[in-house]
Each structure stands twice: as C-alpha cells, then as structure tokens.
Amino acid sequence: IWLLATMGNIPRPEFIGIAEKGGNIDVLVQALSGVLNSRSLDLLLVVFSNFAVASSFLGVTLGLFDYLADLFGFDDSAVGRLKTALLTFAPPVVGGLLFPNGFLYAIGYAGLAATIWAAIVPALLARASRKRFGSPKFRVWGGKPMIALILVFGVGNALVHILSSFNLLPVYQ
C-alpha cells in the first residue's frame, strides 16, 4: 500500500529532490502531501508514516536484541538485559541525535545485521546440522538448493547494502 501510494502519486522527477534532501520519511511525506490536497489524508499519512518508522525500528531492534545477547553471551538477568539494551539501542539513538539523516543510516546497518542473523546464520546452521546429524525425521522443503538460495540472497542483500553505503551503485538522477 505504501509503495502504491508513493510511487503512484508522486511524479517521477520529484524523487530526485527527495533523494537530494536525504530521502528521509519527512521529505517523502511532504512531497506526497503536496499532491494529495486533503487535510484528512495528510493527517492519515503523517500517522501512518510515524507508525511505519516506529514499527521498523522496533522490529529490527527486537531481533537485534536477541542476536546481540546470544553473540556476546549476556545472560537473562537484569544486568545482562541492560547491557544488551544499551548495545542495541544506544548506537541508533546516538546516530539519530548526532546526524539529521541518522535514522536512515542506523536502520540500514541494523538491517545489515538482520540479514546476517535472519538469513546467513540460519542457513549456515541448517547446512552444518545436516552434515553433522544426517537426515532428521522432519526436514524443511528445498534441501541443499534452498539453503544455497538463502545464502545467495543474504550475501547479495549485504553486498548491495555495503555497495550502496559507498555510493558504488547507480542512482536515479
């Protein structure tokens, strides 16, 4: 729905200006508001965009929280959870406060971590488990080709993010 609303209503040349201003959600909402000409739709758009940002932030950081707790071996005590919370939430908060477009960078790098913990690591674990323990009673559909596809997707996603971070990918101008 969001892509249909933005891509279907904002003229293509306006995306150049949106990208030049950092591509933040407020610039996109402002451009869309200029096309809609409706106060009620403007309000709905602002509410929707705020919930979209909040849910993406929470969704990524909740997964990152568990991943970092496992990675650094923090226990489930109050102190362990506090360490994990600081490690999870402090970098995006500091990045968002210090840089005007910090949220985009923070959520991008959190997404990179999500690619590692949600695609690459599980595929490697499934591959290692199948090698070590053989064929279990329950086996997910797809076999080795599915594991390879997930690994290619994960590595490709990470590679695209890294190349984009260094401006090595073509950009619409």
From TrEMBL:
The keyword Hydrolase does not apply. The lineage of its organism: Bacteria, Pseudomonadati, Pseudomonadota, Gammaproteobacteria, Enterobacterales. GO terms for biological process: amino acid transmembrane transport. One of its GO terms (molecular function) is aromatic amino acid transmembrane transporter activity. It is a multi-pass membrane protein. This is Tryptophan permease. It is found in: Cell inner membrane. InterPro entries: Amino_acid_transport_2, Trp_tyr_transpt. Its main location: membrane. Keywords: Amino-acid transport, Cell inner membrane, Cell membrane, Membrane, Transmembrane, Transmembrane helix, Transport. Belongs to the amino acid/polyamine transporter 2 family. Mtr/TnaB/TyrP permease subfamily. GO terms for cellular component: plasma membrane. It comes from the Bacteria.
